[in-house]
Amino acid sequence: MNDALETGLGLYEARHPGSQGQIQGSVVVLRNSDAAILALSGGREVYQGVPSTYSDFNRATESMRQPGSAWKPIVYLAAFRRGVGLDSTVVDGPVQLGEGAEAHWISNYDGRFHGAMTARQALAESRNTVAVLLALEVGLDEMRRVARDLGITSPIPLFPSTALGASEVRLVELAGAYRAIASGVRASSHLVARVTGPQGEVLHAATGPTGTLPHAGLREIQEGLRGVILIPGGTGNVLARDDFPISVMGKTGTTNDFRDALFVGSTYGPQGITVAVRIGFDNNRTLGSGETGARAAIPIFREILLRTYAQGLVGPVPDFPDEMEAAIGMYRTRSRQTEEVRETLEAWASEPLPSLSVPSPRLRVYRPQ
User: Fold this and answer.
1) Which of 46, 106, 186, 272 would bridge 267 by S-S if both were Cys, CB 3.0 to 4.6 A apart?
2) Long-range contacts of 227-232, Cβ-Cβ distance < 8 Å, separation of 24 or more
3) Residue boundaries of the structural domains of the chain
4) Which tens digits make up the pLDDT trace of 286-301?
């Protein structure tokens, strides 16, 4: 895992030579069935020229950072529990928060608004305006309840910006929330399973699974996060390429001014694993324009998954349910057909109208007798 982290940070340094030895990252790997921490890296092995083998600061378990759009699945799960469907129509349009001098507008990463779209497309494309509107519709307190249900323990202020990941959390917490979504199992992350005394007595035992999540909305958020990978235009669509044969679901995160780049993803069900990756500078400076979760964090996630399953460390890759894959496939087909019709209509509309030569009618003057 450390090798994967170093490789990914090396790719970033190649794009930004001035950051050599300064960029940091952290990784958490959880077992979906019981939230056991299978691997964890709180920082790179050599930082600013100093070996950090015994560093006393763990960026995966101690650092409080904004999750950015990696928070949005919590908003969508809250909405799905309230009856919003994957194919419900939502509107990606200008959203104003506040009044007068305090007013500001919510924008999207690409600076555009796409109008009416499905909830699953909005999640896949990470549309900011839709996330804020959904959070306001279901209630910010409901969003916080869902976050608590998924294991988030950090303070969660009830502001609209929280829907976009403005509230700080630890990476291990975020990994735990995605693990709960992927497995449907409630459990607390733990590094030590059991401690015994000299006579074999149990001095400490990790709390095992404590139940399951409500069924309401769970299937929808799982399919929605799988769509982030499979739907063209999804922020994780690079993981659908043939050179990555592992089926995953997940979500990117990019914070304001590109200060942090994240990706959190899982293989399916209790037999799967969850991997959370974050990179950023300790002084919270920008990573640079365009350094999104997809560009900076996904390569690390990808290498960790490939190595983990290639070495047989966690068993075979679990399959997603056939009906889930089929539903996404049907949606992609419908979307492609709709796009083809739209392109055809736009092509017709752009063509000049033909000139018609119409003979003038003969007029007969009527004279009354």
Assistant:
1) 272
2) 227/86, 227/120, 227/123, 227/124, 227/328, 227/331, 228/123, 228/124, 228/252, 229/265, 230/328, 230/332, 231/120, 231/121, 231/124, 231/328, 231/331, 231/332, 231/335, 232/332, 232/335
3) 2-333
4) 999 999 999 999 999 9
**3-class SS at 116?**
strand
Q: What is the per-residue pLDDT for 195?
A: 86
Q: What angle, 0 to 180 degrees and rounded to 10, lies between the N-to-C axes of helices 140-149 and 128-138?
A: 90
pLDDT digits (tens, 9 = 90+) for 165-186: 999 999 999 999 999 999 999 9
Question: Whose structure tokens read 């450390």?
Answer: 2
Q: Helix 218-230 crosses helix 171-183 at what angle (to 10 degrees)?
A: 110
Instruction: Classify burial at 113, counting beta carbons within 10 Å of its beta carbon; exposed 0-12, middle 13-18, buried 19 or more.
Output: middle
According to the model, what pLDDT value does residue 48 have? 62
Of the candidates 300, 264, 253, which has an alpha carbon nearest to the alpha carbon of residue 23? 300
Percentage above 90 pLDDT, the chain: 76
Residue with structure tokens 């914070």? 255
pTM flag (> 0.85): yes
Can you tell me the distance from the alpha carbon of 53 to that of 44, in angstroms, rounded to the nearest whole number? 9
Instruction: Specify the DSSP element, H or E, that contains 251.
Output: strand 249-254
